[in-house]
């Protein structure tokens, strides 16, 4: 038996319970793992609160992120005792996830924990940190450098935003952090933000083209915030879009793209192939400051996962919620 959050919808009525589950109910896969740490991501919060149709199969164990130790393996790349990281791949949506003491996962989904990190540190980063690195790498891949101008990070107190601010500042960028949490200015400046901007100025409809300011943008919000960020991006700039915290819509025009040569780079972390996943985690191990990781972390136990999910939905959470299992 193992403890896990189990989501179900008998008769269309949503249920979320922390319960003991027999291992025989685990889905079929080639690696059985012990989960030592997980996280509460935005998608996990949606699942735990039933706020959006994230779960595709019922019943479901949520948890799109996990890290721990291999117990049994029929996969050539993994053996008992190996430390692993899991991000995405539909886990927690169509395949039982990692807000649990045990998980049965495909070896092709797993990435080794970098030697520099323990499993808790890996989950302070989690999908958020890995996605932030994919965004930073996309900006660099377009040939943009810190001397080209300022970079804007939206949703800066969130998981992706926090790590993006830290990574970009470490690479020498002048970072402007956009947030609706004025009380967290000190936190953002400690991560490396040179300027903290009020989200309110970006959250409403704006002109299709605005004064050029940003050489690059990391956007976690979508909707009007993404549209206004694009409208302010300088000629030849790149906007890495990875989130939908404000909304899935994109009420913009083609003007920034055809008149300023702006590139909108979509960043998908869920189905990213294994090679770029490994490269992103290797880069995180080289570039992230462990002290900054601690500043981002909020530790909680498995039984408090639903409370953390509700805080994330209410907009009262910041940084990274790390679940010790």
Short note summarizing the structure:
The protein is an alpha/beta fold and 325 residues long.
Topology readout:
Blueprint: E1 2-8, E2 15-21, E3 31-39, H1 42-49, E4 65-73, E5 83-87, E6 102-105, E7 111-112, H2 119-141, E8 150-153, H3 159-170, E9 174-179, H4 185-191, E10 195-198, E11 214-219, H5 223-231, E12 233-241, H6 255-259, E13 263-266, H7 274-287, H8 290-296, E14 297-301, H9 305-314, E15 320-324
Parallel strand pairs: 8-9, 8-11, 9-10, 11-12, 12-13, 14-15
Antiparallel strand pairs: 1-2, 3-4, 3-6, 3-15, 4-5, 5-7
Helix pairs in contact: 1-9, 2-3, 2-7
Describe this structure in words.
With 325 residues, this protein is of the alpha/beta class. It folds into 2 domains: 2-113 and 294-324, Medium-chain alcohol dehydrogenases, catalytic domain (Quinone Oxidoreductase, Chain A, domain 1, Alpha-Beta Complex); 128-266, Rossmann fold (3-Layer(aba) Sandwich), CATH 3.40.50. It is 29% helix and 26% strand. It has 9 helices and 15 strands. It has helices at 42-49, 119-141, 159-170, 185-191, 223-231, 255-259, 274-287, 290-296, 305-314, and strands at residues 2-8, 15-21, 31-39, 65-73, 83-87, 102-105, 111-112, 150-153, 174-179, 195-198, 214-219, 233-241, 263-266, 297-301, 320-324. Strand 12, helix 6 (255-259) and strand 13 (263-266) form a beta-alpha-beta unit. Helix 1 crosses helix 9 (305-314), helix 2 crosses helix 3 and helix 2 packs across helix 7. The longest helix is centred in the middle third of the chain and has 23 residues, at 119-141. The protein is globular.
